Amino acid sequence: MSQSNLEKQEAKLKQLNKKIKEEKYKIEQRLGKQFISQANLDYASLSNDQIKLLAQQFSEFLKVKSVNH
Fold it and tell me: Domain map of the chain by residue range?
């Protein structure tokens, strides 16, 4: 393979990785927004520690649910 082809493939790979990161970010934002909305939480009153605790509790809940099925 020529250097030019490798560079083109590398550029495409970088674009794909960027697109994947952007899509992950969008999903994380939508998930977080839905979680906060459904739990009737106030964005302004959530500290980083509270967010981490809620995420941990939600994660544990999902783990228990998946084991019970």
Answer: 1-38, 43-69
